[in-house]
Fold these 4 entries.
Entry 1:
Amino acid sequence: MSEIDLSNKEAAYNPIAQVDSLLLKIESIRYDDYQQVIVLASEAHVIAMNAAYWRGVAKTLYFIADGYLRLGNYASASEPAQQALITARHHELPIEEAYALSALGAVYSYLGDESEAMNMFFMQLDIAQEHKHLTLMGYAYGDLGAMYLRTDDFQKGLELIEKSNQLFDSMGRQEEKYIWYFDIGGFYTQRGDYDKAYNSFEQMYRLGESKRITEAKILGLTGMARAKSDMQDYNIAHTYLDQALSIVRTSQSLLECEVMFERGKIFDRQHRPDKALEAVSKALKLATQTEHCNIVMEARRLLCDVSEKLGDFQQALIHNRAYHETRDKNFNDRSYIRTQALRTLYEIETVRKEAEIHQLRSEAAEHELNEYKQAEARRLELERLKVMLEKERDLVTLKDRILTRISHEFRTPLAIIRTSTEILTRYADRLTEEKRETYQGRVDEQFKLIEKHLSDIGMVLKTDYKEISSAKEETSLEYICKLAIRDAQFQTSKHDRICLDINSATATILIEKQIVLEVMTNLLSNALKFSTAPVQFNVTGKTDMLLIDVLDTGIGIPADEQEKVFESLYRASNNDEVRGNGLGLTIVRDYVALIGGTINLQSTLDKGTHVTVKILFNTQLTA
């Protein structure tokens, strides 16, 4: 890089020098003001990108990731760490690659993927040793030592952390050692050796004091308080937390939420729920502001317990729900991180493969290139066949279940057809005209019932619902309701048991007639099957929607099975005596979804079931 000539106005603005200046400033505050680190690194990143200064791009991405890691926001740290790795590898920047591997290892460690985290740290160590980069070697030894502690290989963990400490001592950079004291203290805490845990946290605090590292002092005091709390020396624990809070307020550090949360846990152990509630509520507020995901989740869980102890069950319920929502969000964030990590590895592999392909072409090695392409084609073909096989298995399973249901449901109609046919054949000369019509009518009814079963099965087996006709027709509400009643009564052979109430009896609507008719018929048929009392059928046509309500007072559905009744072939455990193919509500669900409607089911065991279907439409009702 050429020296900046300040006498030349055109050369006075040097983006590379500006990025390097910001990086030096970031180094000076990286242990004290994490949010400012992210702000400055983001600013430097934009300048570096515009200048195509790739070393600066990789470094700024690493510092953005490092800032988020120190804030406990691992979801946000993942992407810049991955982009730093891609940039460093693509532009052959091994030192920056090692730093990116360090950040990615921390992300994997948070996800609980110890194996992948250690892979990242070992790759970091290999690069550091190859380039004799002592700082990176120290970080790698320390991170690997911490991982071994977490996997219960205590001796190996201590040896690696000691190697890290020796390296930093040799460089006169003792301030880098403090985080390992925290890991060792945490390990001793898990083993129940609280005296050794206390000593480790105290060493961390002393190092923070001597080197003026705010984070080390606060985390050290918090760890000391935790150890004293484990030894049931609560007064001393609160004294240490007071000191930590004093440092927090002086430095305006973002670690206050961790200190307050630790205080809340100690109050809870002392059986002082009112004080615990106050401390943890403050910790939750701070953690929410700083996006400290772990403390937000754990604070919600502790607030649930504390509120329950105070008898405030409503708040306990609120915190319990919030805890589960946060936990689910963290799980989704972790899934997103894993997906992003896979995408990063894919991008890295893509870059590598492109380089290999370029080299092969330049060396005229077409044979190897063709082999690679063939292998990739085979892999893609195998993946395609695997997906097809899974779909085939699912379809075979569904068809097997349907065949089992058919053999059961068709038994009765076929028996009636066979019996009626035999009577018509054997005793034709003895039967009156009225009797012949009766037996023939039975045969026709059973054939229609079988056709209905086959139609339902065909509907469920369709994989493309666009094939189903959803053409809109101008239809009278009263007419379509009476058609549905007629069809339902025919299917169940139960008549005069449906009470119809139409809000706009003379109104017509522009709607998917065949679909709505099928929905109404299946709901009414279900209600008639499971209820001996009359079924209430309410239909309301409004200017913007159609409401269909079907209420029965039958056997009801067990609470834990109400969501399952919409699945194909599912039958509730209390309706073994009632015939049916188990497809009616599946068809209702699919038809309602097809036209953008919603369905709601409420049921009480032995009291009945209420199903509401809401269908929105833009065309207004016409008289």
Entry 2:
Amino acid sequence: MTLNVKMNQLPRLSLWFWIRHPIQAYWIMFLVREAFRQNQIERDPNSLTNGERTAGNRAIEMSRKQAKQALRKINLLHKRQQAALDAAKRERRLATELHDRLCTPPTRTNSIVIPPLPLAEARSLLAEQRAKVKADIERGGTRHLDSPSKVRRATAYGLLGVDIIALFSVFSTVFNVDLSAPELKDLAITGGFSAIAALVLGQLAHSTGHQVWQSRVTTNELDTPQRDDPGQDEGEQGEQQQALTATNGEFPAPRLMLKAKMVSLGVVSVLSGFSILTRVVEEAEKIHQPLLGWVLGLLVAAAAIVAPWLVVIDEMRSGSVETRTIDALTKMVQDLDSQSSTYTDNAAKSEAEAANCQREAEGIRDEVALEDTPAANGAQKVIYMARSMHGAAGHIAAEPDESAGRTELGDFFRPPSNVLNDALSRMKPAT
């Protein structure tokens, strides 16, 4: 590191280097001058000059600022990771509690009463009911083969529109509405009464079909021989039999109510069909087409009569108690499985976010390791270039050599980085 120069003769940098790298050129010449001044006194030839220490300390200070910024980022990542882990823990807990939660299976009617039960018991009961239905079908039973039909139901309720027209014809006759030149008020009143009557008719048909279904279910349960449970005493068996026959003491009697509903439904549907038939025939006679009027009138009247009974048939063929129980339990199990899957997916996303925070923090720590920062690398490069010019007194260096003395500065640019490591140690390892 001895600098052999003549009086007032120092190595110089080319003008081209000054133009391209003015800051590096300034620091290189500063270090060369400091080395020349320090060379006038005795010193350790392997030690750093004062200028080199100045450049190195300046670079280390800049690196420490970068390390502080990195520390703030790591602390923020630690908070994000902790929040993600807490969210994952919460989602896992919800998924676990979901299996122990008591849930009531959703049912369309009050005829199927299933007490609240956890998911495991719901699965067990579902498997038991499916096995029971399968065994009944294998023995030749057909009551489980009935099932709700969306097409049948849509057709039935669509045909109820014909009853609305028929009821509109009835109410227009009752209120003496002139359909050739009707008033808006009369049309509104007649249409409102027709819609209300159609809703009542549909509800009556639905209620009749449901009561027929209940009657069939009760008859099947009474006719089905009950096996004696060895673990069940006579009192419990008597209570079950009493519950099955409890309908016999109801008032009014269910069978009487069913007959009254069916008679009312038949009368209303026949009157609706008759009214629409007479209206169509009357309008056809005005245009001298009586035959066409009778054909169309009979078709429309048949639709008006059949429509409510299709609702009855759809409701009475909507499945057995077992199939309805299976449908309710299946929906409950599917909903709970969907919620559990959602909780599990959310937990997995939160855990993945926590792992990403850990990897990002490690990457920041590696990027700001003080010996690898741009400031430290730039300072070392300047020092190496300045040392390459030692002994070149009076010469102009077009491009100084930056590879000289590279092994001598390793320890100087390795200050401790325990702060970043301590911050990383508080974070959870990536999984």
Entry 3:
Amino acid sequence: LIYKCGGIDKRTIEKFEKEAA
């Protein structure tokens, strides 16, 4: 949802998911 609204880089999403996991 965040990457869809903000358009964050795919790498940032992966890092965010890794930290959130």
Entry 4:
Amino acid sequence: MNTAGQMRLELDAVLADPAFARSPVQAKLLRYLVERAIAGDGPPTQFEIAVDALGKSPDFDLVSDSYPRVQISRLRHNLDHYYLRNRPVGEGRLRIDTGGYAIRLAPFDDPPSDRPAEAEPAAPSGAPADGRIGFARLPTPARRIAAFAGLIALVLGAGLLAAAVFVEGSQSEATARTDAPIIALEPDLRGLDNAPGEWRALAGQAVRQAEMMLAFSRAARVSPQAGRGEADYVLDLRFESGPRGGLQAFVVLSDRNDTVLLRETVGPELEDPQIFTAGIAWAISKAIAPGGRITRIENQRIDDPLASDYACFVRLEALRGQNRSDTALLDACIERHPTGEYTPFLLARRALRAYQTDVIEGRAVVPSGRAWQDVKAALSIDPENPYANFVCAKVAIAQGNCDAAGSNLRIAADQSIGHPTLLAAVASEARSCPDPPEGTGLSPGELRAMIAATPAPSAPHHLNMLMAALASGELDAARMLLVRPIPGQSNTHDIHAIKLLRRAMTDPSFLDANEQRIRQELGLFNWGGGAVDRLIENLRACTVSQCSRQAQARGS
């Protein structure tokens, strides 16, 4: 087969992968580069990529907009991780060399691009508009958590996760961090040498799931070439037979000094493989989610939160996990890093806060003003950013346009695997639509698993899970939250909403007397009236069923 045929064969295989199937921008860019290489037109310029492949207008400004550089770097990263999981179907893999924009067939054993080299040339001041020059280097994006087929279904089951053991690593040797740390995955299946074949296959599936989650973590970057002693963090994933049968896994996060930072036991599982892989997914999420273990440790190592967009992201997520905020820092971060890899998250956070202020002060949520400009700016940097798509969907729903919100909600849900707080918020918001978009909700098992895996959720996570459960009518899941502690002693809006909902669940007279007050408080979080209507209706069903009696039995 000639080179053109091999490239097309490989292109079809890559595009069929769920990570690319759920990323239309990346798929379109990959197809453009392959077809250009086959046509023999030579390496594309950055301007041609922006206009011909990414749909930018001909007056696109190369100097001020890093979008094509970010997308090319992201595509290189995604191809590297695709070939970590898959062998080529032909004689070579698709590869974009560091510092260039052309794609070629390369030997499969070519080492993947490592993080320090992942950069693109940046246009100097006065660069010509045709883009026919070299450009400065930017770090490789690692912003997506892969949403391959069926991964949402893995968020199932309850009671599988043992209590996490958190051990603070020594900070005496910690150095100031401005970029995401390196994480390495070390699976160990030796404990299954004599186990049934289906157990080994299930363990292999769990390892591939872990590879995908780490490859697109926002908290750390995976490096295929880094191992224990070289990476900043190591995630050990060990499998063995349970003491009474069944498959068991141990998930351990350690630092480069082998100090254990998190330990989770999953299983033993005897019957349902999805419950087992779900347990592993939740354990990994505790390490790599925004506000997770790695982010909390990295926050302690940041001397100057303005040093990079990553440092900004880590500090602001850490504050959010403490139910705190810093508006001045958020503004300064966006001003200092207007097109950074993590900037879309910051822009979406600021937009959400501005819109919530509008709600508090009685103004309508509309697609205009500074908040809307922030949403558009975030999506122009990263069209698949889950935070920005979530806020965009909320604005559309507030306008009564569920059709327009559907695609944004689906993107937000797909890209939120490993981030349960946002996933629950998406599920709650989707209930504002008469027919929630497919793939944006959480099943009863998913909700119960999420709650069971989080014995002490943060205030935002607690509220999002509670609202998602009540809005979808999953009263069993909502009741589980009655025995969860309410975090902190402050009386912020989300904590106030949690207290109102929990009291309304157990006291019908309180709901009758305070319905308008509850609606007003929930309107700050669910801008579409439909979700609040459903929630109130289901609250009434809860108060006349078992909520009150179960709460009394549990001592709530």
